[in-house]
Amino acid sequence: MDEQVDVIVLGMGPGGEEVAGQAAAAGLSVVGIEERLLGGECPYFACVPTKMMVRGADLLAEGRRIPGMAGDATVSPDWTPVARRIRDDATDNWDDKVAVDRFEGKGGRFVRGKGRIEGRDRVTVGDQTFVASRALVIATGTEPAIPPIDGLRDLPFWTNRDVVKVEHVPSSLTVLGAGPVGLELAQVFQRFGSQVTVVEAAPRVLPLEEPESSALVHDALQHDGLTLQLGVSAKRAAQNGSGITIDLADGSTVTSEGVLVATGRRIDLRAIQVRNAGLDDEGHSIRVDEHLRAAPGIWAVGDVTGVGAFTHVAFYQAQVAAADILGREHAPADYRALPRVTFTDPEVGATGLTESQARERGIRVRTGLAHVETSARGWIHKAGNHGIIKLIEDADRGVLVGATSAGPVGGEVLSMLIVAVHAEVPVSRLRTMITAYPTFHRAVDDALNALS
Ligand SMILES: Cc1cc2nc3c(=O)[nH]c(=O)nc-3n(C[C@H](O)[C@H](O)[C@H](O)COP(=O)(O)OP(=O)(O)OC[C@H]3O[C@@H](n4cnc5c(N)ncnc54)[C@H](O)[C@@H]3O)c2cc1C
Questions:
Q1: Residue 212 sits in which domain range?
Q2: Residue 123 and residue 272 in one domain
């Protein structure tokens, strides 16, 4: 029997949960379909548990900075409280009862299972078919991408879904991928006592960020003792006693107890059968307009739209889509000042365009670069003070179109630059702003003065 509802939400990660919750709270009949845990990747397998790991690793690093600054300290890492905190505080042992109760408390109906799109307005889960009279929302997120390395699939490697459940730190770890996820976790495990090697095909770490950010993080990781194998791809993987050996394209090998695959994310549009809804399944993501509409009666939000794989994007898009579905006023989606933060130490925050992206768009670019360690606060901070502020100005319009804030609390300092890019505050006006002495923010003044 088909069951009629107002709204079907397929995939209940941060994006789906927000649309479904708003629609249910507005009095619509909503069914939220989720094959794993209500809340999706972020709270159980991604943002929250990994940032708990980062918090532990940062504390260890700060402890190791005490000598020469504030006395003596011996730091003995212990993974137990980190693993316990993730299991007990963050994920309720990977149980979503609280989230399900919250959604049902808003009047939504939760169905656990793998949904199959059967038509523009219908989704089947097991032997139940739901038909939506108002909206089908696709919010199915991403899966870890596994690179085509001979032999890898037969080995017990980790993805983010495994690493958050780890109870013991391996003596050595190979991390495939030097993007944000790979680097955050590589630094965490190195600081907890593992000997970590990062393998990356691109010539630099954080290849999508400014080269200055890559250089900064590269130096910091080397200072932590990590080995970086850059500009080389992994070819083969094989069990080697109790470890795993990976052969690299340059003829070298890396052997370690554990392997973490962090080579990006994959969207499989065929698996969710978007073609049955009349959508193209050839591309890498679902194309949406500025109201997140994929087709009449169909919306898509979150990672599946390919706009940016961040929880804040999923949440933002969900708010735009929910308003559209509910007939409420909302400004169209605008990603000009979309922020991103890599939670390494130093932390790399960025918003808008990088210098090379701005140049590719034909913008007449002026850049301003300042070093955090030469600002008053950076000099006072001393140990762990490395960082940069880099500003990208559209010289014809006199506004910032992009910015990077890397360093201690780089992601927090970023907030003022998000405002500047988002609101297109003229650079001449930014130069008249007073920043508090001696905060890390004052390095932004230095970068504004350096715009040339
Ligand atoms: C290790 C790691 C760390 C990260 N850290 C951060 C961070 O610090 N900050 C940040 O902003 N972002 C971070 N992210 C990204 C963030 O987790 C995602 O951008 C966010 O979860 C996307 O939300 P979503 O709603 O699009 O999809 P998801 O959270 O992926 O949820 C989609 C849900 O859909 C379900 N689903 C898929 N297909 C079906 C189907 N056919 N039937 C039923 N259910 C289905 C899945 O089971 C999943 O639960 C991180 C990602 C990773 C991997």
A1: 152-263
A2: yes
CA of 13 to the centre of ligand 1 (A): 6
Ligand 1 surroundings by CB, under 6 angstroms: 10-11, 13-16, 33-36, 40-42, 46-47, 50-51, 114-115, 139-142, 160, 181, 272, 302-304, 309-312, 314
Give nearest CA residue, ligand 1 atom 27: 141
3-state secondary structure of 187: helix
- Model confidence over 352-401: pLDDT tens digits? 999 999 999 999 999 999 999 999 999 999 999 999 999 999 999 999 99
Residue type, 358: A
Q: Quote the Cα angle for 172-175-178, to 5°.
A: 140
Residues written for the chain: 452
Same domain, 170 and 221: yes
Phi, psi of 248, rounded to the nearest 5 degrees: -100, 160
Beta-strand pair 298-300/128-138: parallel
Specify if 442 maps to a domain.
Answer: yes
**205 and 252 together in one domain:** yes
Let me know if residue 56 belongs to a domain.
no
User: What's this model's pTM, rounded to 2 decimal places?
Assistant: 0.97
Three-class HEC string of 340-392:
EEECCCCEEEEEECCHHHHHHCCCCEEEEEEEHHHCHHHHHHCCCCCCEEEEE
Write the CA distances from 64 to 73, 170, 185, 197, integer angstroms.
7, 21, 19, 21
Statement to judge: residues 165 and 280 lie in one domain: no
User: What pLDDT digit, counting tens, does each position of 183-205 carry?
Assistant: 999 999 999 999 999 999 999 99
CATH of the domain at 419: 3.30.390.30
Give the atom of ligand 1 at the shortest distance from the alpha carbon of 265: 53
Q: What is the largest CA-CA distance in the chain?
A: 73
Ligand 1 centroid vs 59 CA: distance in angstroms? 27
